[in-house]
Amino acid sequence: MNIKEYFSSLFEGTHSLIKGMEVTGKELFTKKVTEQYPENRAELKIPERFRATLQFIYDDEGYHKCIACKTCERNCPNGTIQIITRMVDLPNGKKKMKLDKYMYDLGSCTFCGLCVSTCPTDAIEFSNDFEQAVFRREALLKQLNYLPEKEKPALALKPAPATKPEATDKVAPQDEATKVIEPKDVQTNVEQKETE
Ligand code: SF4
Ligand code: SF4
Is ligand 1 within 6 A of the CB of residue 69? Predict the structure, then answer.
């Protein structure tokens, strides 16, 4: 290294040092943003759309809208959701599949939101409650339908469909081709020809 290169490198180093000190110096006078958590828990403002954990949406009467279609389970890329169903008998004698347990493993969720965006009934959402730390991994496995299942009031029976109007002598065009010719009709045709 000659003398020229030496001074050039010294100048560059000094310039870089001053630049760095300039950034550090500015921070001396800016407002401090250090969070004193958990002492500031009461004033903490968590963005509404922050995805902390999946949860069921219950209405005021304790009903949820999950129809156990398993769309969320199928769309979850890493098997975080497991839906356990059971068959129930309806008052009308039919059977229906209902939700038994909605299991969600917070420990494997990537918070991609596919489950929420594909749910056809908007039954689930993300809560922004970020304090989800636990001591055991098993505690991260949650049953989301935690409220006891409430049966909806039985639907009123539909009125019986109106009876069809009496059949008329007029035959619809499409029925003409498939009409079965009765023997008496043949006889009538022959008689008609004879009279002609
Ligand atoms: S949460 Fe939505 S997508 Fe998942 S099973 Fe229930 S209704 Fe279907
Ligand atoms: S956010 Fe993504 S990873 Fe988490 S449960 Fe929903 S689909 Fe699965």
Answer: yes
